[in-house]
Every structure is written in structure tokens, then in C-alpha cells.
Amino acid sequence: MNGRATIEVAVDRRTDARAALANGADRVEYCAQLGTGGLTPEMWRVRELGLTAPGQLAVLIREQTGPFTADARTVDWMARRAREAFEAGACAVVFGVLTAANEIDVEACRRILGSCDEGAAVFHRAFDLCPGPFTALDTLVKLGFRRVLTSGGAGVRAPGALDRLAELVRHAANAIEILPGGGVRSDNAPEILRRTGCGQLHSSCRRPDGAFDVEELKSLVAVVGE
Prior knowledge:
Layout: E1 6-11, H1 14-22, E2 27-30, H2 43-52, E3 57-60, H3 72-87, E4 92-95, H4 106-113, E5 121-123, H5 133-143, E6 147-150, H6 161-172, E7 177-180, H7 189-196, E8 200-203, H8 214-224
Parallel strand pairs: 1-2, 1-8, 2-3, 3-4, 4-5, 5-6, 6-7
Helix pairs in contact: 3-4
């Protein structure tokens, strides 16, 4: 930690990942097709990026868009990709599997976690669909997840989202990291940090046309360092 909140940036291009890290991002979440919610990138791309971003590269593990449920074949696929991502240089993998009732799929997650480096798994925003967030958080702690990406519901700008994030932070009691994401920008980052007690933020820093906005990242870095 460098005296300010940790900033993670979601990217789907290696050039954007390098630009983000060169302009103040502490970590990148790398995926393919970010505009669709993100899918697992090709491993040769992960390997190339991992050589230049040791300890700063989280990789999304997701086979297809749509529901966050997964059958046995998909779970096995995710477990293999997770192992490959670590071997390619990732410091963390990001995934999430839910049951049809939108609860944490314990067995599926346990299977994938078995292929992960210890303490290096992140549960993604599928968490926001869980009907009982505190119960879901307890489940993630028991499973051994290090971090959970959450918007506090429908996005950090939604009414009540920051209060819910603060409640999650209190409930977590440092047993798991809470990473706010889903609408984080330089104009609301200071309030998110102040009101939630979180020490990190996740942002895509995108322009309206979907392109990576390095100036927005610079602004984000500046405001969280004030």
C-alpha cells in the first residue's frame, strides 16, 4: 500500500493494461470483451502481460456471458483456466458461480479454488445477485476467497449502496477484502472511500465510446491521494 487507496482498473487490451499501470493503477483485472461483462482472455496474452506486470495482474475466469450458474463441464473448464492463469503470471483470478437461487455455489467454487494459489481468489460481482449478502460473505470467507468485488447492489451510485458497502465492511471484519466497483469514477471516489471504510477501488475508467480513458485514471489517482 502506498499511502492511498489501492486502485484496480478493468481492461481488455494489453496496451490499456500497460497504460493503466504506468499512470497510477496498482493492479489490473484483465479480461476479454469487457463491454459484455468480460470473458477469460487467451492465455498467451495473459502470459505476455504477466511478464511485464508481476504481482499486479488479476485475470477473469468466465467462459460465456449470461447466468452465473455453471454445469460440471464449465466448472472443470474454469478450474483449468484458473490454473493456467497463475502459471501465466497472474497474481489473482476473478470468478463467481451461483446456484439457480442466486446463492454461492459452494461445491463449484471449491472445485475451482482447488486450482488456485492460496489466498489469490476474488469473487466477482455475481455477489450482488445474492439475496442474503451477509450469509454469502460468510460463505466466501469459509471457502477462502481473499476479496469480493461488489457495487453494494445495483451500482455504487444507487440509493443506499454506500451504506450497504459500509455494512459489508463491518461484517467482514477484515476476514475478506471488500472491493467497491460498478460506477466508480473520480467524481465519487473520495465519498465512496470516506463512507464505506474501504481501502481500494475498482474502475474501468471508460469514455462514453467504451475506450480506456487515461485522463480519468489520472484524475482518480489524484483524488484518492488527497
